[in-house]
Amino acid sequence: MPVKVPDSLPASAILRGENIFVMSETRAEAQNIRPLKLLILNLMPNKIETETQLLRLLGNSPLQVDVELLRIHNRPSKHTPCDHMNAFYRDFEQVRGNNYDGLIITGAPLGDLEFEEVAYWDEIRAIIDWSQQHATSVLFLCWAAHAAFYHLYGIKRYLREEKISGVFQHRRVHEHVPLLRGFDDEFWVPHSRYAQVSLDQLKAHGDLKVLAESDVAGAYLVVDQNNRNLFVTGHPEYTRTTLQDEYRRDLAAGLTPQVPNHYYPEDDPTRPPRASWHAHGALLFSNWLNYYVYQQTPFDLNDMAGMTPWE
């Protein structure tokens, strides 16, 4: 089954070109089916790129998914046309009264700021609090995962001596967990961030369980005790060239970034990069949609109040 998106969303044409089944609103309206309703809070500067990355993974599921896009504020975006934002994005007040099967909150390029210094920190806190009653499952990506650790559990992150950038090997900590079904014992994940949360602190917290980790990147997959919140500290949604685009952007800005680790053949940035994480990323999103959203959500979203997943 496909992911349902607005007919004119730029990601639609891109994904159809990749032979990913994307259903238009027009066709979906003719079907008598209860699709999963997902909300994506997109905090990344290039909205269209991030939309496409996430929809690519969501479209890999056999479930029909109805996606809505949410913005954190209505100020003009420097990297996305205003017409696009106004046509496809909703403000929080427009969705506050709704319930959703799932919510995804993306990362944000705010790695060196304290959370209280973020201009929209109050809005982020409000949406996280709202999500605990209005979404069956919440998937926090990268910066959003760190923000949620801090807001929900008081766990602070720390700045690394140097940015972690590249593709790193990870291992499963638990085997018989629905989210990890089909995973290899070891797998690769892209990371691109300045901050990190202590692995020991996460493991010591009684309300959290670390499912996968890396010697270099630390905790990667973490769930809360009710499996309602999933924290993903890396970027399984990245395309093959995303790290290269970031590296070249920093070079063009006069910075001296390190070559992303385990990304270019023989660490040579003049050669085409290799993607070693796409299968894992697709499986992660498929397992989340199936086991943590579809298998747990009520048929009538109005019945969500007071529901605890896995009861």
UniProtKB/TrEMBL annotation:
Gene3D superfamilies membership: 3.40.50.880
Q: Keywords on this record?
A: Acyltransferase, Amino-acid biosynthesis, Cytoplasm, Methionine biosynthesis, Transferase
What pathway, per the record?
Amino-acid biosynthesis; L-methionine biosynthesis via de novo pathway; O-succinyl-L-homoserine from L-homoserine: step 1/1
Where's the active site on this chain? 142 (acyl-thioester intermediate), 235 (proton acceptor), 237
Where does the record say this protein resides?
Answer: Cytoplasm
Where substrate binds, per the record, is at 163, 192, 249
> A GO CC term?
cytoplasm
Q: Return the SUPFAM superfamilies for the record.
A: Class I glutamine amidotransferase-like
**EC assignment:** 2.3.1.46
Question: Which processes are annotated in GO (biological process)?
Answer: L-methionine biosynthetic process from homoserine via O-succinyl-L-homoserine and cystathionine
Residues annotated as site: Important for substrate specificity: 192
Return one GO MF term: homoserine O-acetyltransferase activity
Q: Which InterPro entries match?
A: Class_I_gatase-like, HST_MetA, MetA_family
Amino-acid biosynthesis recorded as keyword: yes
Query: Where does this protein chiefly localize?
Result: cytoplasm
Work out whether the entry's keyword set contains Ubl conjugation: no
Q: Which domain of life is it from?
A: Bacteria
Family named by the database record? Belongs to the MetA family.
- The protein in question is named Homoserine O-succinyltransferase
Species this chain originates from: Ferrimonas balearica (strain DSM 9799 / CCM 4581 / KCTC 23876 / PAT)
Q: Which gene encodes it?
A: metAS
